[in-house]
């Protein structure tokens, strides 16, 4: 049945309790925006979906057509396209191979045929994406026998072709399941429909799209304040300072109390940071140490296994979730804290020191460890988001797990894994599941690696220098031991890296209004701000495996380079493209050879790109001074969004969209927040 | 309840159909041998085992004591000791990380406290081996808070200690399960009890313990015969020649028909090989191609998905199994074939060209793909073993999957993976599950690597040169491209490597009576022929992680070196140990520095080691000429076993055990098969 405009729901068997839709469908769908999308017939109807159920769980089979490529299934660091592969949605923070293991898997895929499917389950489902054909007892015995003998495993194992193989979905334990089908007609329309269905994408506050710096985990208040001052003194843009585990009296598991040794006067420290224009982000995870003030209250509502000696609160239960949220509001968000880093809500069960609760854990609500692992990040975001809202804070934070219904949650995924190609790929895969991901900087093996890693974040969901393991800024010394020992680069090299850092961070700040508008588009119309090229142009087979470049907003293509790369040829969708830096025009493809300090960016078609004059940090309601870069003969105006940029007021007012035109004029809606410099 | 002497069975809930014991408990237990083992009280009783069941499956919790170390869970290439880890028994041929993924997982563990537990399930169960402690709501709030701040993930994630954490077993789907407890008192007694419970270990024919050579997959009959002749001409010991996929008219999937191009007169070819003293082994897998003569008969008894376009016969059903076995007897085992390589009965679902059937497949018997994957190797071995027995052939073969109840099956596990440390480790892990594993030679990156890899097999279940990808013997050229092009090493180097190969293979042949006796001990008394040191001496903490050396039989310790190693210090169990080559005595530990041509072997205590004069191949019922190596002051006699070495006669006669003494005398039971040379 048509559940919402262009969204069909099919019910098979009797769905279990605690599915993503039951737990996390927390925002009303944006029905009007969905209705505005073009109409498309569903690619198949319920009669073409095969369903069987057994004690083992249920199995769904959906038709696939030849040449149809599969994307999605959550954050995927190992691959973009899933066609022919098996993916098991196991929550795991250390995926070593291309299995579907992920910080943030999601039972949701989209295809180049222009539709999407959400399987409403929190189980570790497996998706066989068209690689397994059925035995057909009536099939003719095929004539061709063996030609040449093959002498490598790769040749032996390669399957001829299996055009007729279906999508097979294996859902453990569940006696039934709801399936949601999102129609196109275009692939991007289907993605938009999903995002709008979940309530629309997150709209971060402007400060959230600024620059982030996480300070050393061992820092005390004085050291944090000194770092805050150093950043301002050096004019390194920074909106958010993050504190790592050392802020707590006990971490691993968490007390959620300030360390009396390191932060004896937290209110004073936080106020000092706020006064310097910083938002403060606190690291935590939800495993609650016995010394925490909320431990006793949470224990009756916790799972039956401990993690790092801490209780695991069952956030599906109101008493636990409300205890957690109220404590955070009372202790933190009402006292100058506006953001959190929600660590380790994924699962790491196969490393040398495995952690988190077993999948067979039992929670007081009746949830088990498997479904709880799938939903833990979502529940945690919702709880912390509520704490922030209690203090009227529109937050933007970090999280290590997400699932279906992620789009409205204002949190960005990150990882301890650190392969740069994978970090870049993550941006291209995330959009298909309405998730946000940052290819954060933690450390770098060389100045080149450092600059490339910084650049990869400029047009990403979050610009984050996570310097948790070093006491001094990375531009003074990249090697941890030396940095810790205060052994810095020669002055000249420090200054070179400091300047390069400032330039890259200022580039981020220049793009901030453009990115903010892309997020507003995500929120109101469902278009992910960062998208694999194939999402926009699924019919171009050259683009289907492009996992190293992405569209940011409607007109920019980011092609971050990695250390060691000197040249890259990128296929371009039809039309004219312009080099952002030189203005040179390309069609068909472009071969890039950027300088080490330069992030390659291409502009789609003749267009205006508005750039803000960089500021060290955002101020609530500030007015952005824009300079325009115009490309081509008839530059399309840029759309910007002009709410106050920090409060929830935008939820109840007519969206303030407006245009910036090549001639420097602005729509009146934008006047309060933007001016164009001559 | 005490099910068999020292074996207790506990039933929880209602076990499902198709468990390992229901399908593969095919040999009667060796009850008398079990009764002869020393008595031990069970370490816990049923009341101490916690059981819960839900639609998700069932959960068992068994007590563990502090310092108790966990071993087993099948073939494990990634680690020997499982304490504190999670292991999921997923059948997978490409385990990349230490998760429990394995060609041959088994729901069976043993601990240093001297007992074993078999969980009778074919599900992909997870074992949390003491790493997860329960939340105790009554626990005192613990005082200690954070000391120093940690600045690495390894430090952060390390758990203090969890002495009180249980073994938690998570079994999907099953509404209940039987659990078998094997008492000690010693760890080795518990392992023996398990092996005897399953019917006793496999006793290969003597020829199976000789040397194996797999010929190039592209070879035709003339080329195979030429290789057979070359091995004899060069006096390279070889008992079994293996033919790779090219012998079939169609492989991937299989026709089970001889290729009319490459093997136009198979009976004549096989007879010629037999006449040269070779046993012939045929590669196959069970996925049956439409052009196979048995395809039409198998289709009605096959799973609902194809693999490589072939049907997957449901070997739990008599019509399928009997069709398969009869065809093999009729076509192969009655016509000179005595051994098979059962490939790809595991599962490879996450590689770039994934293969095998989905875990949600449905089979006509009611089994699903998950349980079928667990049992596929066992069912396949049983079926092929039946074909051999129809032709009165006591076989020894190769297989890529096994599970519980593996001990009586005369098949050796192998892998496409090729890390030498992992290959060596496999020998140490396999014994805990009553499985056999060969660190086969496929190729080598250098002559040193080649010799080290050969040496590692001398005291292993199978001495196998798997030269399937090269037309010429490896001692002529190790690099595949050059070998294929006929570009060989200089004559002198060829001769050096040929001689070194011959020496190593002849060393294998010298140990053959000793190894055969170790297998007879396995068969009649349950002692695995190859054992991690810790299995024999669990109380010595220095030995618990020794995954690079193993006991072979009762008195030899093999310490294979890998390429690049020059020196290794090995902790030795209490008592005197002797260098096999020099006779030097060691206690406590030994530092080894073997020459590249030398496999380090240590002899336990003062002992006789009987060595056979090498022969190019075993002849049925032949008489072995022994030379004795004696170590220490009062060498313990060696036990040998003297059935005919090739038929099933031993099953119905009094076991013919006898002693070889340091003075060169023999027990009369041995006289027909052995003589001692002066």
Protein topology:
The structure is a homodimer of 678-residue chains.
Chain A: E1 2-4, E2 7-13, H1 20-24, H2 31-36, E3 50-54, E4 57-62, E5 70-74, E6 86-88, E7 105-111, E8 115-119, E9 126-129, H3 153-157, E10 167-172, E11 176-183, H4 187-197, E12 211-214, H5 221-233, E13 240-243, H6 266-275, E14 279-284, H7 295-298, H8 318-331, E15 337-342, H9 369-390, E16 397-399, E17 411-413, H10 420-430, H11 447-458, E18 463-466, H12 480-484, H13 491-525, E19 530-532, H14 533-536, E20 550-552, E21 556-558, E22 568-571, E23 577-579, E24 585-586, E25 589-592, E26 601-604, E27 607-612, E28 624-631, E29 638-641, E30 657-660, E31 674-676
Keywords (chains A, B): Glycosidase, Hydrolase
InterPro entries (chains A, B): Gal_mutarotase_sf_dom, GH, Glyco_hydro_31_C, Glyco_hydro_31_TIM, Glyco_hydro_b
Protein name (chains A, B): Alpha-D-xyloside xylohydrolase
Number of strands of chain A: 31
Main-sheet strand order of chain A equals: 17-16-15-14-13-12-18
What general outline of chain A do the C-alpha atoms trace? globular
Please give the CATH class of the domain at 2-135 and 160-197 in chain A: Mainly Beta
Rg over C-alpha atoms of chain A, rounded to the nearest angstrom: 25 Å
Helical amount of chain A:
10-25%
> Could you state the oligomeric state of the chains shown?
homodimer
Largest sheet of chain A: 7 strands, parallel
Count of DSSP helices of chain A? Answer: 14
CATH architecture of the domain at 2-135 and 160-197 in chain A: Sandwich
Low-confidence runs of chain A: none
Largest interface: A-B, 92 and 93 residues
Instruction: Examine the coordinates and then state which fold CATH places here, giving the name of the CATH topology of the domain at 2-135 and 160-197 in chain A.
Output: Immunoglobulin-like
* Average predicted confidence as pLDDT of chain A: 96
Family (chains A, B): Belongs to the glycosyl hydrolase 31 family.
Pfam families (chains A, B): Glyco_hydro_31_2nd (PF01055), Glyco_hydro_31_3rd (PF21365)
Keywords (chains A, B): Glycosidase, Hydrolase
Protein name (chains A, B): Alpha-D-xyloside xylohydrolase
């Amino acid at each position: 049945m048509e559940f919402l405009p262009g969204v069909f729901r099919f019910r098979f068997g009797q769905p279990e309790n605690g599915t993503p839709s039951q737990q996390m469908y927390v925002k009303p769908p944006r029905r009007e925006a969905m209705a505005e999308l073009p109409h498309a017939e569903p690619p198949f109807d319920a009669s073409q979906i095969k369903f069987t159920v057994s004690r083992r769980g249920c199995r769904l089979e959906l038709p696939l057509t030849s040449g149809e490529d599969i994307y999605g299934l959550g954050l995927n660091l190992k691959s973009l396209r899933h066609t022919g592969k098996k993916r098991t949605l196991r929550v795991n923070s250390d995926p070593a191979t291309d299995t579907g293991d992920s910080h943030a898997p999601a039972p949701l895929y989209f295809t180049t045929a222009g539709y999407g499917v959400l399987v409403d389950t929190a189980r570790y489902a497996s998706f066989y994406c068209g690689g397994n054909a059925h035995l057909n007892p009536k099939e003719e015995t095929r004539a061709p026998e063996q030609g040449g003998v093959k002498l490598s495993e790769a040749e032996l194992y390669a399957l001829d072709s299996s055009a007729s193989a279906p999508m097979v979905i294996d859902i453990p334990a569940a006696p039934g399941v709801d399936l949601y089908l999102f129609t196109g007609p275009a692939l991007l329309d289907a993605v938009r429909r999903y995002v709008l269905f979940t309530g629309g994408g997150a709209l971060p506050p402007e400060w959230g799209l600024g620059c982030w710096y996480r300070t050393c985990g061992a820092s005390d208040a004085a050291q944090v304040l000194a770092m805050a001052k150093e950043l301002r003194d050096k004019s390194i843009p920074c909106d958010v300072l993050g504190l790592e585990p050392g802020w707590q009296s006990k971490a691993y598991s968490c007390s959620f109390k300030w360390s009396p040794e390191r932060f004896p006067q937290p209110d004073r420290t936080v106020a000092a940071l706020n006064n310097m224009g910083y938002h403060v982000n606190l690291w935590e995870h939800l495993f609650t140490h016995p010394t925490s003030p909320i431990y006793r209250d949470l224990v009756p509502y916790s799972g039956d296994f401990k993690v790092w000696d801490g209780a695991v609160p069952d956030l599906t239960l109101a008493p636990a979730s409300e205890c957690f949220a109220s404590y955070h509001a009372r202790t933190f968000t009402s006292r100058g804290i506006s953001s959190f880093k929600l660590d380790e809500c994924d699962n790491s069960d196969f490393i040398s020191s495995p952690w988190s609760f077993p999948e067979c854990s039992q929670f007081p609500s009746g949830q088990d460890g498997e479904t709880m692992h799938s939903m833990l990040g979502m529940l945690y975001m919702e709880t912390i988001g509520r704490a922030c809202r209690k203090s009227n804070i529109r937050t933007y934070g970090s999280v290590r797990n997400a699932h279906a219904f992620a789009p409205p949650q204002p949190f960005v995924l990150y990882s301890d894994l650190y392969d740069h190609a994978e970090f870049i790929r993550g941006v291209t895969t995330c959009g298909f599941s309405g998730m946000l991901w940052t290819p954060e900087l933690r450390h770098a093996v060389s100045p080149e690696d450092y600059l490339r890693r910084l650049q990869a974040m400029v047009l990403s969901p979050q610009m984050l220098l996570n310097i948790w393991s070093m006491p001094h800024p990375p531009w003074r010394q990249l090697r941890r031991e030396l940095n810790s020992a205060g052994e810095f680069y020669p002055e000249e090299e420090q200054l070179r890296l400091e300047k390069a850092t400032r330039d890259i961070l200022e580039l981020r700040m220049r793009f901030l209004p453009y990115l903010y508008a892309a997020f507003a588009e995500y929120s109101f119309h469902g278009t992910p701000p960062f998208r694999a090229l194939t999402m926009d142009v699924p019919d171009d087979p050259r683009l289907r495996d492009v996992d190293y470049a992405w569209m940011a907003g409607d007109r920019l293509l980011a092609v971050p380079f990695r250390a060691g790369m000197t040249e890259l040829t990128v296929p371009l969708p039809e039309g004219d493209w312009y080099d952002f830096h030189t203005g040179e025009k390309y069609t068909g493809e472009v071969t890039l050879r950027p300088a080490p300090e330069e992030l390659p960016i291409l502009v789609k078609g003749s267009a205006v790109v508005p750039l803000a004059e960089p500021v060290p940090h955002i101020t609530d309601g500030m007015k952005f001074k824009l300079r325009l870069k115009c490309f081509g003969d008839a530059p399309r105006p840029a759309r910007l969004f002009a709410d106050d940029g920090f409060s929830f007021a935008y939820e109840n007012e007519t969206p303030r969209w407006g245009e910036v035109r090549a001639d420097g004029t602005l729509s009146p809606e934008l006047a309060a927040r933007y001016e164009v410099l001559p």
